[in-house]
Amino acid sequence: MKVLFLIPARGGSKGVPGKNIKSLGGKPLIAYAIDAVKPLTDISDICISTDAEDIKLVSENCGVPVPFLRPPYLAADNSGTYEVCLHALDHYADQGIHYDVLVILQPTSPFRTTEHIREALDLYNEELDMVVSVTETKSNPYTVLFEENEQGFLAKSKEGNFIRRQDCPRVWEYNGAIYVINAASLRRSPINQFRKIKKYVMDEQSSVDIDTPLDWDFSEFLINKKQSL
Which Gene3D superfamilies match (predicted)? Predict the structure, then answer.
């Protein structure tokens, strides 16, 4: 099967301005994704999808040519991942290069490793829509998540007759690190309509996703701690 590894890196970031190329532990954030995927494939099968010249320059300094800059309609705050993925696949299809699988690696997961990506790929088969990385959630809907009912009172998000927290079913949340997607499925429907999905479980630290300044500070702490060992 032919696999395209897509690293989507839009220039605008409100939570942590310029985060995709901001230095984390001595190297640009996007370099963590690039370094993780390089051992798995040829450079020609790595696509940095960005609208920003500075991200393009940093990516190319990391050894990955950037084949295009995203058009403005794919660079807005409300631009969807679905459209960005199709745009990348179409770019290569126009050149006669057709991919069976699309692997999305967001730059905001610096603790995702080459081995994580390889293991997620090993779980994939063509009968699936997607293999997605997850971590076990602390916010279990059987115990700590509540919604307001019609009377304005809090009610459990998911009812269940469990006496102990440990007896509740394990619940998983997407951690944003790895999406292994059937390209044919993606062309039929967006990710949120997929039904044949398998999980790839990652531990809590590997699942850290940088979205806020606090996430950034925590990631710096983890990296500094590792470097001091």
Answer: Spore Coat Polysaccharide Biosynthesis Protein SpsA, Chain A (3.90.550.10)
The CATH number of residue 38's host domain is 3.90.550.10
Q: What is the residue whose two structure tokens read 């967001």?
A: 106
Domain that holds residue 193: 3-136+170-228
**What total of structural domains would you count in the chain?**
1
pLDDT digits 0-9 by tens, 33-72: 999 999 999 999 999 999 999 999 999 999 999 999 998 8
Distance of CA 67 to the CA centre of its chain: 21
What's the rounded Cα separation, in Å, for the pair 178 and 23?
Answer: 22
Phi, psi (degrees; rounded to nearest 5) at 18: 65, 25
For tokens 């995709």, name the residue.
20
Largest CA distance in the chain: 59
- pTM (2 d.p.): 0.92
């696949």: which residue's tokens? 89
Name 1's Cβ contacts closer than 8 Å, sequence gap at least 6. 100, 101, 126
Which helix H or strand E contains 199, and what residues bound it? Answer: strand 197-201
Residue 162 is assigned to a structural domain of this protein? no
Answer yes or no: is 144 within a domain: no
* Residue whose C-alpha is closest to residue 199's, from 105, 104, 131: 131
Q: How far is it, in rounded angstroms, from Cα 206 to Cα 168?
A: 24
